[in-house]
Amino acid sequence: MRFLGANSREAMRQVRAALGDEALILANRHTEQGVEILAMAESTAPATSEGTSHKQPEPESAAARAVPTSADPAQSQVQAFEAMSARLLEEMRDMRALLARERSRPEAGGTAGEQFVRAMLEAGFSPALAEEVVASLPEELAEVEALDERAMAWLVRQLSKRLEGLDDEAAFMDRAGIVALIGPTGVGKTTTTAKLTARYVMRHGTRPVALVTTDSFRIGAHEQLRIYSRLLDVPMYALNADQPVSDLLERMKGKSCVIIDTVGMSQRDQRVIEQIGHLRGGDTSVRLVLLLNSASQPETLEEVVVRYRQAAQAAGGEITDCIITKLDEAGRLAPVLDIIMRHGLRLLFVSHGQRVPEDMALAEPVSLIEQCLANRVPLARSTASPTAPDISSRGAGNLLGQGRRLATVLQALRQRLPAFDGLEAVWNLLGLPASVQQQRLDALLADHPRPGQAHGMLWSERRRVPGEHWAMPDVALNAEGTWLALPLLQHRQVAGLQARLESALQHHAAGVHLMNGLPDAEAGDWLERQGLSWCSQVRSSLRVAHAGERHSLAALESMAEATGQASCRFRGAPARLMLATLPVEVRFKGSRRERSGFDAQAWFGEVRDAESGKALARRHWIVPAVLNRDPQPLLLALLQADVLPQLARRAWQRLEHAEAGDLRADVRLLMASGLATVAAHLDLAEDEAAMDLRAELLGLGGGRRRRRDVALLESLLQLFLVRDAIRHLGLGERETG
Question: What sequence ranges are listed for the domain AAA+ ATPase (predicted)?
């Protein structure tokens, strides 16, 4: 029987489910779809010589001894077959033992996805949030057998980035205006008002601060806040519940920080809409902050958030900020954080006692998440075993319902990739008339790359991509060697390599040049005079001089000195690059110099599969003999740029069927090549932030299928198409101050 799983653990799970204790593993291999295992039940296996292989030999008869020696090779084949059968059976026993060990694992085991889900449920997070997080599980963590330190660090990052807090408390405190604390009865609004006021006073003094109360229903409510106002030495004003805040503005002249303590109302009280309407009455802008009691039941908290936000919307307002109260009374912190994350609220402060102002702290997402995960409670045995969500069924259809994740991914891409905002600006040209597209594209590209962005250039081949009528654009690199997300169209640049090199140096101070093919004599001489760093990927047939004789690079490869190996990716999969080098003399094409050639270093690379060691490709490079930097990053950059034309071609073809509207060819090419550059960068990057971003993209775009770089390209394409649809619907990202 043939079993196919996303990974070895999943395939083994299928084997156990189908064959149980009788499972015998015959073969396994990695495929583009995952891991394939060939197995059979032991009871169906043909009889082997196991039962006879250990029998005592019978006495040899005279007739047997008389058999001619010519019959021995037939006997040797039988013995070899029996030995092979015995080895195969032993391997089968080993695999059965492995299966038994897997079954004997404690219930806390399971796939990596199941373990992450269980950890979040034990902490108190909801299944909905757990499913969302595990949908973005990186392939690097998909095979972990236990949630070790690295796995838990990933989980903390995933949860904390979904919990928005204040980057800087000073920015919040320095913002002038009116803040109204709202929420149900008993949530702690009055005490929190005093704590928040104390923070303002500590920063700005008493003169610009004022307190306002609208609570005329609760006995002693005015007096409680008045005591705080006297202690803090700030004035307090009373406002009837049906009065707009603008009625007090005349009396509060000179007050830049006004905090309103509102009357508590049940989330089911229809007067909540009226209350928020009065707070927003007149021309005064009031910032609403929702208080959430962390000791409340999750269902109650969910209802509070939903009803209060609906009321604010009905009154023409919006609730984007919140404060957690009564943290010292809560058994678990995860439920309230879960609700805040799922509703996209920003958590300002956490209140944990009655003391003013000591018992309130700035919300620190990482610390809060670590606290939640440190206080996990094992699930009851009656609780069904959590299962990882089937991310293979996720596609673009439900991206519209994940606007917050969409915005998070886009923001991460903007922060990571230089000129990503330029690529977004090109996508913004969709739907515009062709003449407007041309005008805005000219204005956009006139300022690209921006000063200080481009420190080097990756010059693409000056010929059309096979099967297309366009050439791959050039790509600029920043000081760290990262590709700029918005490439440069070839037809918009000056003719001649030397002229392009001079322009890049003059306008962008580009001092590193990566080329496909050896530069011509004019450009080569110019590079030599300028003393710039450069590297050319060349064909093996290039003839160079070594030890006074001219040979092709292919002929000289056996003479090169091995220098080691480097990790890389090739065609979307892990690989190793074996390197060797040899000093040579190079004669540029069209060179008229009298001397024999240009002193250079030839580099030879063999790309091998990281797992099997199988040779996949060979590459050859030429660099100057005197290079003011390590050549290995330049060699790797050229090798790994091989994939850009292929990815750009795929994106170009996909855009044709993406209902993107009328597109100028140059706009479409920039979109396609930009997607290719971003996808390739994310596939190649090895840091943890890239790992998280890859997983997030693949989770949004429908899982991990095909080559990873191709899957990333498809996900980016869907991301941009959905972003564009949301933008045209007027539901763009909301910016909060």
Answer: 175-373
